[in-house]
Amino acid sequence: MSDNLYSWFPRALLIGAAVVGLSGPPARAQQITDPSPAQAATNVEPTSPISASFRSQDGVSVRPETVRVFLDGKDVTAESVITRDFFTYRPAQPLPPGRREVLLEFTNTQGVTRRVTWSFTVGSPVRASIDLVDHNAGNRPLAAGEILLVTVKGTPSSRVTVYLVQDGRQVQTLPAQEVSSGTYVVNALIEPKDTTREGIVIARLENNGQVRFMTAEQPARLIEGATGGIQRLTTQEVSATISPSSLLPQITNLRDGDRVAGSSFTLQGTTAPNASVRVNVTASTSLGGIISAQQTVTNQTVQADAQGRFTVTVRPPIPASGTVYQINLTATSGNQTSPTVTLRLTQQ
Prior knowledge:
Elements: E1 18-19, E2 31-36, E3 50-55, E4 68-71, E5 74-75, E6 80-82, E7 86-89, E8 98-107, E9 113-122, E10 130-135, E11 147-154, E12 159-166, E13 170-175, E14 177-180, E15 183-189, E16 196-207, E17 210-215, E18 220-222, H1 235-246, E19 250-251, E20 259-260, E21 265-270, E22 276-287, E23 291-303, E24 309-314, E25 324-333, E26 336-337, E27 341-347
Parallel strand pairs: 20-27
Antiparallel strand pairs: 1-9, 2-3, 3-7, 4-5, 4-8, 6-7, 8-9, 10-11, 11-15, 12-13, 12-16, 14-15, 16-17, 16-18, 19-21, 21-24, 22-23, 22-25, 25-26, 25-27
């Protein structure tokens, strides 16, 4: 055996690790694995939980009652969940941007005390905002058969919904699609029942728990006062008008940032009827918080049904805890191709 003091120390978190209490014979240490956020991770969300797993080595394990957790020198043990297999701590308030350091102190079943550290960098929080809400029903009333087009501009990668309040008597909810970075569009076919003298168009944007509202400056007028000379679109023209947004693939059973469990997970989504959806999934795995290995999990094309629904089952070869999956979706119908939709999921 080498005389180097660290020759036997587990290399999962050797970098930045400090070991104390080594007056007796060397003993193999309990490994700290799968730290999250990973060692040296950047642009970490301010509300991200902090966790790591405990793994026995040659019969030596951690004594959970001895574990103490420090974040930037502050003892957060009382706010942490600690078991024989892992610990997790969720900050009560968003972490400030910049470098954050985690310190774990514990005693193993051989009575040896260990201290292990790792660090990551918190990115600046996204400031949700709406910059513009506009529509095409302000200058003149739209007639039945025309398209109500609402455009919202705001924070990219948000969830946007448009509410149409019709003469103070009813509200229509119109989901918006992000057709380019920060630009969201609603295309709604006007029907005879949609008569509206004064409609209020309100946009709601949600991003990372932040919610913003904005109302369009002009009221929307539908059908009331519309003249017979206004062009009415055919079914084919309506389809061509709405296809850029309806073609955009959307995952309906999971949201960006969700966690998945088990040896596989299923993506359920919608797009235009009978469209082809290209699904590319890559996995990034932290190996002891030091090495980030990335591999392609699946790269396939699926066909949506007549209602535009599609399903994909993803089976990672090694579903390790903390693995981050990036899903990229692109839909094609005829000679039209949608923008790429991206979401990220994390393995529990």
